[in-house]
Amino acid sequence: MTIAESVTTGLTDRWRGARSPRDGAEWLVRAQEVSDILAVDAVERDRANATPHAEVRLLKEAGLVTLLGPRAHGGAEQTWDTAYKVIRIVARGDGSIGQVLGYHYLWAWAARLVATDDQIAAVEELYTSGNLLFGGAVNPRDSDLTVREDGDELVFSGRKSFSTGGQISDLTVLEGVLEGTETHVFAIVPTDQPGIVFAGDWDNLGQRLTESGSVEIRDVRVDWASAAGFVDRVFQPLTYNTLNVPTIQLVFANFYLGIAEGALETASAYSRTSTRAWPYGGDDKEHASEEWYLLEGYGVLQSKLWADEALLDAAGAEISAVLHAQREELTERRRGEIAVRIAAGKLRIVDDGLEVATKVFELTGARATANSVGLDIFWRNLRTHSLHDPIAYKKREVGEYVLLNQIPQPSWYT
């Protein structure tokens, strides 16, 4: 039995035939059950760096993949407010799988963001009824995926440096530029086809199980009618279309918080059982848990994460309200205000999370640096993904709002 297979063996029978969670609170309990399973061997699975097929099966069997899907097709039809908290909880147990789930939620919602009503209905029925996981070959800094017209079809060709979800996805969101124009085209296609070839080259410092390596797209054909948001080959723009960036940026912030919470939980458990009191300070304690500097250290770190949680929950409630409202109602100003709040939350959890993931080594002691303890996984995961886009620009966005009353203009990263 492989390490990855051990994640689900004998542990998910509890959900077969069981009543599905009825509300957001019960879904958070379900997410915690998943997180607890993932945490047991997260370090070993990270070291093995194997494709996480079993972990995805766990998400599917738990019902988390269809959390946002319509009830009519077997989904839970929960809100984004709940989805953000589910991402955070799963990331406490395994940051990589929290990211995979968060990206899936964004791509599962992509049809609602940009597609026509008929396209939305078709996509949501497809992925919800099939319990399918999304990946995305979407990286706006890569301009080497092109789209050409061939009669009633579009043909995607080229390469993307990053494609989170990769081989573990059932559906892939493609994005490219229509030849001879500056028009970006999104389409959803089955992952398992000859024209999608993953390089298997994701071997980074952290988030190692996200399958985020490069992909080659070889003449993948899509009906023009499936181009998201196009009517008679003309895109129909709405301000709502631009919510994709703040939505995914808050996904980032929530799995960052989950990773930091996992670091603090793991470290505090270690301190309670294994850290030894320091006998040379003149204020000798019998147990490490009585050491004033450890109590102070854990108190400061937990206070920061509680503050981050409050900020992210407030931002999550704000964007969830507009994501579930009528698309035509969203104004540019409201969109910008929400984006600023999310930028503020992201920059705070990046700073605080990295502090937590570093400081825990001082609070646990030298023996906690053993590879078998695995405290390094939290810093590696958070450090890796927090470089996704420069945090300095998030700080500037907040500063421009405060000083100049300017909202960020929608782009691929704001």
UniProtKB/TrEMBL annotation:
Q: Which UniProt keywords apply?
A: Monooxygenase, Oxidoreductase
The protein's matches in Pfam families, at most eight in alphabetical order, are given as: Acyl-CoA_dh_2, Acyl-CoA_dh_N
Q: Domain Acyl-CoA dehydrogenase C-terminal: where?
A: 250-388
* Chain ranges passing through the membrane: none
What's one GO MF term for it?
Answer: monooxygenase activity
The record's section on InterPro entries has: Acyl-CoA_DH_C, Acyl-CoA_Oxase/DH_mid-dom_sf, AcylCo_DH-like_C, AcylCoA_DH/ox_N, AcylCoA_DH/ox_N_sf, AcylCoA_DH/oxidase_NM_dom_sf
Out of the domains of life, which is the source? Bacteria
- Specify the Acyl-CoA dehydrogenase/oxidase N-terminal domain's residue ranges: 40-120
- Would I find Metal-binding among this entry's keywords? no
What name goes with this protein? Monooxygenase
Organism whose genome encodes this protein = Microbacterium murale
Output the lineage of the source organism: Bacteria, Bacillati, Actinomycetota, Actinomycetes, Micrococcales
